[in-house]
Design brief:
By secondary structure, this protein is mainly alpha-helical. Helix content is 60%, strand content 4%. The protein has helices spanning 7-15, 52-73, 83-103, 107-126, 138-168, 174-196, 199-226, and strands at residues 24-28, 34-39.
């Protein structure tokens, strides 16, 4: 793959103001005091935004894989201890990634990470008992079960919408669609498990959740290599290779998911 910038792009990049590209650093005098702000070259001193989607993918894997594995191999175990961990990685990390992706203009991936980030926060409140909202009476417990079931059904529908959009979205891929499909099956079986209280449904959902988590981890690996110009197969619908404004031709990477 050609990693050289087109002639027109090189001329455009070279003509851009270094100030606009944030390639500045303080000028330091002999006595060590800062004297002024001057453009600096080369771009090793430049400021470059990272790929927030990679953080979101890691947060998704770090939450879904251990929780699904625990439910699969030890469904009767007390999961109270793991909820703080899930809240940090599944909740806070994905919320942060979604906010950064929104700032970068990636609304589609921002919505996915934000929804699932807040999903883990809500699960920690409703199921993890990190906040004292659990009813004690039998009627209250039954009502809480219905609330959790309706909530899981809603997030399942939302994930189905994401998967449908990914089928034709310019930033979608076969890998993204399959990952969301695994998550959809996981959420659907989890919803059924709440209402029928069958261990089998929960374990089937956990199996598909683990597959989805591993696919998210592969997506992270693909994005990591893409930053160095190495493209792993992800099933992109079209050639979405772009060049970033930079003086280093190695910084030629794909669009984010």
């Amino acid at each position: 793959m050609n990693t050289q910038l087109p002639t027109h792009d090189r001329q455009l990049h070279q003509s851009m103001s270094l100030q606009e590209m944030h390639l500045t650093r303080p000028d330091v005098s002999k006595d060590g005091h800062k004297t002024s702000q001057q453009p600096v070259f080369p771009s090793a001193y430049g400021y470059r935004e990272g790929n927030a989607g990679m953080l979101g993918l890691l947060g998704f894997f770090m939450a879904v894989f251990p929780s699904s594995l625990l439910e699969l191999i030890s469904p009767e175990a007390n999961q109270q201890a793991i909820w703080a961990y899930l809240l940090v990685f599944g909740g806070f990390l994905q919320i942060y990634a979604g906010a950064k992706d929104f700032h970068h203009g990636n609304s589609f991936s921002s919505c996915i990470f934000s929804i699932f980030g807040w999903h883990w926060v809500a699960k920690a409140i409703l199921e993890g008992k990190l906040v004292s909202l659990q009813p004690t009476s039998p009627t209250g417990q039954e009502d809480m079960k219905q609330v959790i079931g309706i909530y899981l059904l809603t997030i399942t529908i939302m994930n189905t919408v994401f998967m449908t959009l990914a089928l034709k979205h310019p930033r979608g891929s076969v890998l993204l669609v399959i990952t969301l499909l695994m998550v959809d099956i996981k959420l659907l079986f989890s919803t059924i498990n709440v209402w029928v209280e069958s261990r089998a449904f929960g374990q089937v959902g956990s199996f598909f959740g683990m597959i989805g988590a591993l696919l998210a981890l592969y997506s992270y690996i693909a994005e990591s290599y893409a930053e160095e110009g190495i493209l792993l197969p992800t099933g992109k619908y079209e050639d979405q290779t772009i060049t970033r404004v930079t003086y280093d031709p190695k910084w030629k990477i794909r669009k984010q998911l």
